[in-house]
Amino acid sequence: MKLVTFEVPTPVGPAQRIGAVLDDDLSAGAGIADLTSGYAALLFESGETRAYEAAGALLPPDMLAFLEGGSGARQRAQQVVEFLRGHTERTGRRGETLVFRRSDVRLLSPLPRPRSIRDYSTYEEHMSTRRPEKPPVFYHAATCYKGNPESVRGPEDSILYPAYTDWLDPELELACVVDRRGRNLAVEEASGYIAGYTILIDLSARDIGPKDYLGPYKMKDFCTLLGPCLVTADSFDEDDARCGIRVNGETWFEGNTGHRRHHHSPELIAYASDGEDLVPGDVIGSGTIGLGCSMDIGKWLRPGDLVEAWIEGIGTISASVVHETNERSYVRNGLPGRLPVPEHARDFIEQFKEDARQRIEAGAEGPGPRLLS
User: Cis link prior to 228 (omega < 30° from 0)?
Assistant: First the structure.
């Protein structure tokens, strides 16, 4: 089952709903079942007199609330899909639409605001481009950075190109979403905590890395794309799905989600839960699949580019790159402080400015794949 969050116009402004794709197809003519309204219609047919109130409580129009409903909510969603596939009426008792055409709605991220984002690095091939001798910790532990849930955008949004970067890198990743609360989980039980899978495009401002000396911050926190749908765990095999990324129609990478991956989602979930609570709505990213990013291949995004990231069985995210302007940019130009700047810090600042000048002269090509180690 493919689940989506979508937006429809109403007299008082856009309304957010959750739905299921009826024919496993997200093309313009596809049907998207409104799960809450569809469940109300189903309850009416079964004789429930307070169908709308019950549907709002049992199958709410919000993906986080849906995930908190666990397996019961998924079973009700499946009932709605089966009910509406054989239902000739496309409107409910109050005239509300039960099935929308894909072209009549705006798709949002399936999880517009995750509870958290943990993004790991699990693919040996990606690690090898920077470090032919991979650090031993890669095989012993699962390392991640924590992303910014407020920066999440969907499949119909643009990619933001911050004013402070010259090397913007789109990383193709697979993400799973947690739907149960858990702590200190065993790997063997962790797969039971996966609601489903989606595409994650992790945008990285690679030239900002030296400034983020406490870990990824401005390098990462400006934009993350999730979408176009959440495929339930029973409908997707994370160990074997073809995938790829295209820019302006040119293939930058094609690969497979299971190729040379050291830790898969159950291991990552178990590791994340070690001494820490996981909750419904947590997003767990796989890290860059294979050579699926600019740093690995030496090609970089520019404003106006069209990025298409796809994973077989999930779908495609298509997003244009839009440049943000900010002449004041403290990240690029430096942040004024209150203390005298020591000489060694002045040298670093001047070197950073010189590096930025050279990046601008290098243009779209950027560095080679091993330069940013």
Answer: yes
Q: What is the residue whose two structure tokens read 């920066």?
A: 151
d(CA 121, CA 261): 9
Please choose, from the candidates 271, 321, 267, 311, the residue with its C-alpha nearest in 3D space to the C-alpha of residue 289: 311
User: For the CA atoms of 89, 90, 96, 97, what is the dihedral angle to 10 degrees?
Assistant: 170
- DSSP of 134-186, one letter per residue? --THHHH---EEE--GGGEE-TTSPEEE-TT-S-EEEEEEEEEEE-S-BSS--
Helix (H, G, I), strand (E, B) or coil at 5: strand
3-state secondary structure of 189: helix
Strand partners of residue 203: 170
Which parts of the chain register pLDDT below 70? 88-89, 127-134, 359-360, 362-373
State the Cα–Cα distance between residues 248 and 308, nearest whole angstrom.
Answer: 8
C-alpha neighbours within 13 Å on the C-beta side of residue 192: 8
| Domains of the chain with bracketed CATH | 2-107 (no CATH), 116-323 (3.90.850.10)
Tell me what pLDDT residue 51 has: 96
Distances (CA, A) of 78 to 23, 25, 59, 84, 253: 13, 16, 11, 10, 35
Structure confidence at residue 333 (pLDDT)? 86
- Asked whether the CA dihedral 26, 29, 30, 34 is positive or negative, the reply is positive
pTM to 2 decimals? 0.93
